[in-house]
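sorry for the late reply, my laptop died twice this morning and i had to redo everyting from scratch. anyway the thing you sent over, i finally got around to it. pasting the sequence first so we're on the same page, its 465 residues, then the predicted structure underneath. double check i copied it right bc i was rushing
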Amino acid sequence: MFNRIASKSFVSVTSNLARNGGCRRLASTKTLEETLREVIPPKQEQLKRLKAEHAQTVVGDVKVENIIGGMRGLKAMLWEASVLDPIEGIRFHGMSIPECREVLPPAPGGKEMTPESMLWLLMTGKVPTPQQSKQFSAELAEKGELPTFVEKLVDSLPKTLHPMTQLSMGVAALNHDSAFQAAYERGTKKTEYWTYTLEDCINLVAKLPALAARIYRNVYHPDRPLVSIDKNLDLTGNYSNMLGFGNNENMTEYLRLYIALHGDHEGGNASAHTSHLVGSTLADPYLAYSAALNALAGPLHGLANQEVLRWQIAMQKEIGDTITHDNIREYLWRTLKSGQVVPGYGHGVLRNPDPRFVALQDFCKTRPDLQASPTIQLVQQTAEVAPEVLKEHGKTKNPYPNVDAASGCVLYHYGLTEFKYYTVIFGVSRALGAVTQLVWARALGLPIERPKSYSMDALEKLIKN
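ok and here's the structure:
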């Protein structure tokens, strides 16, 4: 797919992206670090100009609703890799999801963009060549083995401990070998902070599949032998193989798309913001991302797709094999009248269907086995009915499906049925955006985050004055 359309579509994409700072060209054979050394100085100059010329420019108002409402909509973070528009959805350095699926290189023999090609785009703003993506995959595979002490730590944990807790603990333990922490203790120059941060970030992304797969084996399949990393496979190829799905190419392709799509969703969401906040203290990437995983484990954030699947399965069990718009509509109203929300619908920022949901639905439409699945059919038909029901209900700002409405259901169809594990896959994915921000925060010299807080009494006094 990539080889057939890359040249033609890239011309189209780059012309469309001219408004976002000029056309981007395919990089040549440079490594990720070499490419970053090219793109960082112009960004540093851009930040200097913003400080010098616009430091006092007002870009928005702060209302009481922002302070007491979770800071929603408050313009208060610098986040380079992606911007989320309420109508258009997410763009990665100006590129939409369909554009990314067209031009980002797939794995050899595959059609979907790989997480490592998405990470390259997030880090550099450039589309990697197939050769660069392949070399990056090889680098990640080479660095993917876990230290023995981390293996022993994870193996010692009780199977009843939530997989996300185990993932956070394993990531934090990798701090033992942090290049940034060692360099900081040696007194390295601030201008070089980003290089050691990058080293840690690449190691973290490389080791996440082995860590996540080990947790899956320990908790759900303790008698299954662990598969070693295959140095010839891409990041997701190895992850799928270690999970036990290496023989299912459709599952592997789905995981590639899933992890790339979930990789970044600008900086204001809880896990991304947590990683940035902790990283702003100059904590190393392992500690920063471990904290982010704890945020992702919350029911209001990363657990959403498993809640959707539970709800969908309950609906499927109740309405049976005869799926019609009428019986879906009746079930939706029963859910709402019972005081519950319809999981997988609405979003804190989006006011249109989530482009990530659309991409996953497009994936399903190309697979006959998914089209024949009652679970997938129910997802598709619910998406046709739910918006009108939610509009009529009148309590939802965005009545359209988000990515969680589909993501877990495809995993379930392919045999990964352990709901509690789904957020771990999300955690493997969300590292892409988090580590990108950590590198850029150090390259730009961003300060420690320290917003102002108010008590209710102080807030009322401020209002009166």
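The first helix runs from residue 2 to 16.
thats about all i looked at so far, will dig more tmrw
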